[in-house]
TrEMBL record:
InterPro entries: DEATH-like_dom_sf, Death_dom, Myelin_different_resp_MyD88, TIR_dom, Toll_tir_struct_dom_sf. One of its GO terms (molecular function) is TIR domain binding. It is found in: Cytoplasm. Transmembrane segments: none annotated. Gene3D superfamilies: Death Domain, Fas, Toll/interleukin-1 receptor homology (TIR) domain. Residues 163-296 form the TIR domain. One of its GO terms (biological process) is MyD88-dependent toll-like receptor signaling pathway. It comes from the Eukaryota. GO terms for cellular component: cytoplasm. This is Myeloid differentiation primary response protein MyD88. It holds the Pfam family Death. Residues 302-326 are annotated as: Disordered. It comes from Mizuhopecten yessoensis (Japanese scallop).
């Protein structure tokens, strides 16, 4: 007679090549499906000696009780769990291990519902990694050849090589009020010749989103500005970006995080030790803009008046072209949000 593991391995098998891939390649559809199935809390299963929901998964991964309580308090416990797990290499954060844990929890329903989405993510990642035998996998544009594993932003394609940035902006792109602040901030910083990477404006669709964010934050950007508002807490992407940047080495962390408050909200615990720029205090707005500019200058040692990271790397775009691209993006975003609200 077949056991449950036998049935699972026969009917809900992951693509073999995907077992060792990190869970960071999972995109939003996969994460949302897992969350939809694992977030609802269940009763203790005495035969398993586990609770077969996100908390049982967290126990199998070896998270401690206090950490699991933290996941429980998150808007989406499963999203929070996955985001935290992928930062712990000692806990084997790979897709094959996720499948093993789901089998132990006897959550065949979760496996059946999520296999389609996870298989798509695995296939996309494997195709991204493929390299023809005769040479590295390259993209060619206007005679310039670039390695596609380094193509993370629209400017990577435009200039034909990896782009580096002064600032990565962590923000909730679903918030119109936050978008207005980000637009104003981008104008001030980019007019001072700093180069910003703004998710939704500058990243490419179809990427392994969390993997791209991690690479941009850790390698491509000198500093991360975190836009804090009531809307910040609604974004699982913002939660991931903040925790990832915070988890970097202490020496790097000091120069990586600059939180700015744009509306009244509860500041996340892990940011309470970091000096904030509070734009909710109207009498100190001008002073905070100066502080923000100085914070960016301090981590851009090659910055001079009229020079920034963009010029440093030799791909200086026309200023008018940059302003037009920035203005068009925010204008379209505001129009789209307004249309959605009117519906």
């Amino acid at each position: 007679m077949e056991t449950l593991p036998d049935i699972v391995s026969r009917t809900i098998a992951l693509p073999q090549e995907g077992h060792k891939l990190p869970i960071s390649i999972l995109n939003m559809a996969s994460r949302r499906k897992l969350a939809d199935m694992l977030n609802p809390e269940r009763e203790l299963d005495d035969s398993l000696e586990l609770i077969p929901d996100y908390s049982g998964l967290a126990e199998l991964i070896s998270f401690m009780y206090n950490e699991i309580l933290g996941f429980q308090n998150a808007e989406s416990p499963t999203h929070a769990l996955l985001n935290e797990w992928e930062k712990h290499n000692d806990k084997n954060p790979c897709i094959g291990q996720l499948w093993v844990h789901l089998e132990k929890l006897q959550r065949v329903d979760v496996m059946e519902e999520s296999i389609k989405y996870i298989s798509i993510d695995i296939d996309n990642e494997l195709r991204r990694r493929e390299k023809p035998s005769h040479s590295c996998n390259k993209l060619a544009k206007d005679g310039i050849v670039i390695d596609d594993q380094l193509v993370l932003t629209k400017e990577d394609i435009k200039y034909g090589c990896p782009q580096y940035y002064d600032v990565f902006v962590c923000w909730n792109s679903e918030s119109v009020s936050d978008a207005r602040f980000v637009e104003k901030m981008a104008t001030k910083l980019e007019d001072n010749h700093f180069k910003l990477c703004i998710p939704t404006r500058d990243d490419l669709p179809g990427q392994a989103q969390y993997h791209s964010y991690a690479t941009l934050i850790k390698i491509r950007c000198r500093l991360m500005i975190i836009v804090l508002s009531e809307e910040y807490h609604k974004s699982v992407e913002c939660d991931f970006m903040t925790k990832f940047a915070h988890a970097l080495s202490p020496a790097t962390k000091q120069k990586k995080l600059v939180p700015v408050i744009v509306s009244k909200m509860d500041v996340p615990n892990l940011l309470r030790h970091v000096t904030l720029c509070d734009f909710t205090k109207e009498d100190m707005v001008d002073w905070n803009w100066k502080r923000l500019l100085k914070a960016v200058k301090d981590v851009s040692p090659d910055w001079e008046e009229g020079e920034g990271t963009k010029a440093t790397h030799g791909q200086s775009a026309a200023k008018d072209d940059k302003k037009e691209r920035k203005t068009n993006f925010f204008s379209k975003l505001f129009a789209r949000k307004t249309h959605k609200q009117q519906k």
